[in-house]
Amino acid sequence: xxxxxxxxxWHLKENARExxxxxxSSKELIVRRGQAFTITxxxxxxxxxxxxxxxxxxxxxxxxxxxxxxxxxxxTASKEGWSAVLQSTTSNSVSxxxxxxxxxxxxxxxxxxxxxxxxxxxxxxxxxxFNPWSSGDDVFLPNKAECEEYVLEEFGxxxxxxxxxxxxxxxxxxQFQGDILDICLSxxxxxxxxxxxxxxxxxxxxxxxxxxxxxxxxxNANDDQGVVLGNWSDKxxxxxxxxxxxxxxxxxQSWKKSGFKxxxxxxxxxxxxxxxxxxxxLGIPTRTITNFxxxxxxxxNLRVDEFYDADGNHLERGADSVWNFHVWNExxxxxxxxxxxxxxxxxxxxxxQEQSGGIYQCGPASRHAIKEGEVDLDYDGAFVFxxxxxxxxxxxxxxxxxxKNLIFxxxxxxxxxISTKAVGRDDRVDVTSDYKYQEGSAKEREVFKKARxxxxxxxxxxxxxxxxxxxxxxxxxxGKFKVAGSLEVGKDLNLLLVLENLQSxxxxxxxxxxxxxxxxxxxxxxxxxxxSISVTLAPKEEKQFPIKIKYPEYQQQLTxxxxxxxxxxxxxxxxxxxxxxxxxxxxxxxIDIQVLGEAKVNKEVLVEVAFTNPIDTEVKDCVLQVxxxxxxxxxxxxxxxPLKANETSSTKFKLIPSEAGPKHLxxxxxxxxxxxxKTFKMVNVIN
Length: 687
Known about the structure:
By secondary structure, the chain is an alpha+beta fold. The chain is built from 14 helices and 37 strands.
């Protein structure tokens, strides 16, 4: 007869060190699958005799669904199933090494032990995660430095701006902080898949491909009351402006605290960053990817159509769009369903753009399949292929007659400077060549044709397809916008419109120009400026026309994305129209962080943040937000008095670092004239 409830020593420190889970701050054992962990317990008489262990997870554990395992003591660890190996015994306690299979279902397990014919005694619970350090695991990542970055690193850099002007900001993934792991487990238990069939859902949780897809649906609020509600309207009442977040922790905590109501509001980088946190927390190597000039091809024809009126205004017509940038995820795992060459980095996208299988989820799409134009492979290859490869068609649209004329088409516009953070450094790495062959090369066009063919777009009669003669017409002039001077919020915007006559006879050109503030998705919000000029260009002549948009003209109209689209539609007499456009992203003024003294574990250290008001009017409603994993608990919010023109504010606060190593402090400063000025600083904490 079993004695009283056994007391269990989970050897939390030693097991965590072995399993790369030391960063979790949990009182519960957290281990990785396919690797042994040791426990000691007492309260069983004659312990080495016929002990049977029971590990179970999910609502209705069973051997068939691999959510229940019973195993007795064996002499060596099993390669296939669960096993227990006796380590040592004393008169009243026993130490056991328990191993789980490489393909075990992940999640929270209940562990019991049975001695002889007595009823099972509960030893407690533990959490089992994916194991990228183990060669048998589907998420095995051979490079240790990459495991450190893509699973254990809590700080990330997200790239934004536009292709001419790439900017970046820090993000606190915080996957090991507080109860984030518990929140991640509850995300899985709130998915539509789980609600419809909990037993089957849990049994699929051994598969990173399955979980990646489920979580890409759960991070957005569409369909399933998921974590973050998207908003691309420039009106964010009742929630937070998406540019104001600095980390995932606050978002995941808010979701839980509100009784699992979607957090307001997110845009693409927020969805991608939160998905990174969840997947890294569960042990799937994951990173964020930024694609510049990213296509949203709504009608799946690998073409994006943009429409302009006679004044050069970009029209909201059709569902296609091109975003200045778009952020998604890559996760690393094996594709047993597609074959070895498609394993490795897989694209997942939690931003709700198009439905897949009836709900807003996207991926995993094998990055290798995208590069090779294998758009028919699971999942959502055609959508991801279009994001980096679609051809652009620019049309002049007359709303009175409903007529449209092709101005020009471009096959090299979409998918440039695809970027991610470097491993172990705060730098940008360009991964464009992993998504496509050299732009404009024969191979790249060949892959594009192959993708069109697989989608049945080759032979289909397309009434909107431009006639050959429309495409072949060569324009008489060329034009471009050049930036003259700095691109900074608070300063005047100076541009040059450069027009060149390509012909050997003079040309008269009427130019209609507009500037609109936009969102990063290029959705127009407010008109800032318009003008028209008429010019005559001598044969082969190039002329420059300066454009100045003063700060007071744009200040009220600017969105927090700080983006402006300038267009010039050039009507050439007796020639075809030429569209000149440029998307401009303005930089915020800088902000400075100084750590005053040495940062030591559990010792106070002072930090000073300085901001200088660069404009000639007072700024008010100033707020400073600070966060950083292992540097401070939660988020520090400081109110700062108004700043007169050109005045500098200096704010000091204390940190008490809780762990040694390179840590990142993230700062976000806002006031009535400048939104979300972000910066970060690496703080090297010593013991």
